[in-house]
Amino acid sequence: MIVEVDEALRAALREKLPRGTLVRFDPPTPSWLAEPRPRPTVHLFLFEIRADAELRYLVTARSEDIEREHELLDRSLHVLKSLKEPLVRLADPGGGQLWSALGMPARAAFVIAVSSPG
């Protein structure tokens, strides 16, 4: 179930994001802050699996500047909210506690809840 959802999210984003943008599933790390010119990347970090088969992902972006990160997040939000299968909705991010748990200062991001197919 997780692999199928990951692949559906990756395929949808790759089709609509600027050419060369990476789509990754690894968690944010403090080393991001030290990268001088990161490659444009959208990260979908799976941080919670609920009993009702709902998956929660933290969606964030990295690029050479904040404006481009916001553009990637904006485009990602539009793409993900338009998906019919798997069904995606915006979810409560939990008040920044996730960033603290990851050892990072808060960044622009959003959380999606994904209802897995079948």
Overview of the structural elements:
By secondary structure, the chain is α+β, with helices and mostly antiparallel strands. The chain has one domain (2-115): Phage tail protein-like (STM4215-like). It has three helices and five strands. The protein has a five-stranded mixed sheet with strand order 1-2-3-5-4. Helix 1 (2-16) packs across helix 2. The N and C termini lie close together (9 Å). The model has no long low-confidence stretch (mean pLDDT 88).
Any chance you could write out the topology, listing elements then pairs?
Layout: H1 2-16, E1 22-24, E2 41-49, E3 54-62, H2 66-81, E4 87-91, H3 97-101, E5 109-115
Parallel strand pairs: 1-2
Antiparallel strand pairs: 2-3, 3-5, 4-5
Helix pairs in contact: 1-2
Short summary of the structure?
This protein has 118 residues and is α+β, with helices and mostly antiparallel strands. The protein is 31% helix and 28% strand. The model has no long low-confidence stretch (mean pLDDT 88).
Question: Keyphrases for this structure?
Answer:
single chain; 118 residues; alpha+beta; STM4215-like; 3 helices; 5 strands
For the largest beta-sheet, the strand count, sense and barrel status come to: 5 strands, mixed
Number of strands: 5
Shape: globular
Order of helices and strands: HEEEHEHE
